[in-house]
Amino acid sequence: MPVHLLDLHAEGAIGRHVDHTEYSGAYIVGLSLLSEAVMELHHEHSTSSIEMLLPRRSAYVLTAEARYQWAHVVPKEPSFGGREIQKTRRLSILLRDHAAVEAALPASPATPDGSTVDSPPTSTGAG
Ligand SMILES: O=C(O)CCC(=O)C(=O)O
Fold first, then answer.
1. Which fold has domain 3-101?
2. Quick one: average pLDDT of 33-47?
3. Which of 16, 24, 35, 39 to mutate to test the pocket of ligand 1 (most atoms within 8 A of CB)?
């Protein structure tokens, strides 16, 4: 499972996006450390939006509709319920499962040397 660490400056922000649907799977798990922050969710096909408070030492999961139908943003100057949130340096650890297409592939039987039967040939000679 790929893990990414973001080290965000107090004034750092993450622009609006939906995580790539080919390169990451159905779950995005974020661990929020050091500072509280806000994640805004914006519906892709309407003007609906939601503010989600990310307290320090909290975790969130984006999956299903929140994963695919809503874009997310971590704003530079956040507020939550009308309260201004003071951000400091923040660490965000992201865990993403593999894209569904990769997970759906059948496992290849392993050979004694650890390669798989559908590995490309490793010949060193020409022809
Ligand atoms: O800071 C966060 O937790 C959000 C990170 C994010 O949106 C991303 O890496 O795609």
1. Jelly Rolls (2.60.120)
2. 98
3. 39
